[in-house]
Amino acid sequence: MTLHAAESKRNEPDLRDRRDQRFSRRVAVRLAAAAAASATAELLVYAAFVRTAAGQRWENSVWAGRAHDESLAAVHRADRVLDQITVMSLGGAVALLVLIGAVRRRYAETAVAVGVVGGSLALSEVLKRLVLRRPDLVGASPRLLDNSFPSGHTAIAMSVVFGLALVVPYRMRAAAVGVCAVWASYVGAYTVAAGWHRPSDVIGADLVVLTVACGLTSVLARLGGVRAASGRRHRAGALLVTGPLMFVAFTGLGTGGILLVGAASGAVPAWSAPGVAYTAGHALAAGAGAATSLAWLALLRRCAV
User: Fold this and answer.
1) Which pTM was predicted?
2) Least confident segment among 2-11, 58-67, 135-144, 275-284
3) 109 burial class (0-12, 13-18, 19+ CB within 10 angstroms)?
4) Which residues pair with 304 in a beta bridge?
5) How far is residue 260's CA from residue 247's CA, in Å, rounded to a whole number?
6) Of 151, 130, 252, 258, which is closest to residue 198 (Cα–Cα)?
7) CB 274 within 8 A of CB 298
8) Which of 174, 172, 208, 173 lies closest to 188 in space, CA to CA?
């Protein structure tokens, strides 16, 4: 081996370290920007749906539509799903995250994953109970004035999925998140079906989780805990699993958005009817959860943590 070749071989670890550091810094900046953007979106959703008379009227129509259009069996099914989200089930989910991280010896990532779950739930409760009040702008009945923005149940479900993305191997991330995020998206939709929350509560919870996850993972990346992923993912398999998630995102946001815009513009008066408002709210709740999960996957693209 020549002297030049030997010198190059000795410098290879240093070059890799510098590349990893640059990559981590770029990811940290990207995630910090995403955290700021999702926090801003959270405030915009709150302002549009909670702090305006038009927003309150539409969400009251969603509840009225649920009462008229949702069958008793569907309500009971939604209640059963939501009743499974208890302190015990949350503890079991966190224990699973810790177990996966411990087996893989990814202790910092496990701490961040647990922090995403705990931080999302804590922030949701603080915002709901102390910060983001619901004024009565439309003379609604007392039962419609409960402060419920954002949804705690949705925050629990989504934060577990987001935490899972941090502890599973890179090649399994899309599959694991794709499967679990469909369930989490429908947990959000079920809170609307059961009459526990409004659509904006669900969207707000999705954005809270995204804000917390991006913020904590940005810190991890700033400390060098993120590197460029090596090896290839099984793209066909990942697409097969994330395909249903994409379908829920596009159809939910598309259908709900069209009906919401139609109701807001008054172009089609029938679209403001309670039954149609409920359909729009239900679709938006499911689509927002799926879209937020896809955004999380996109932000972690090519990142091994």
Assistant:
1) 0.87
2) 2-11
3) buried
4) 227
5) 19
6) 151
7) no
8) 208
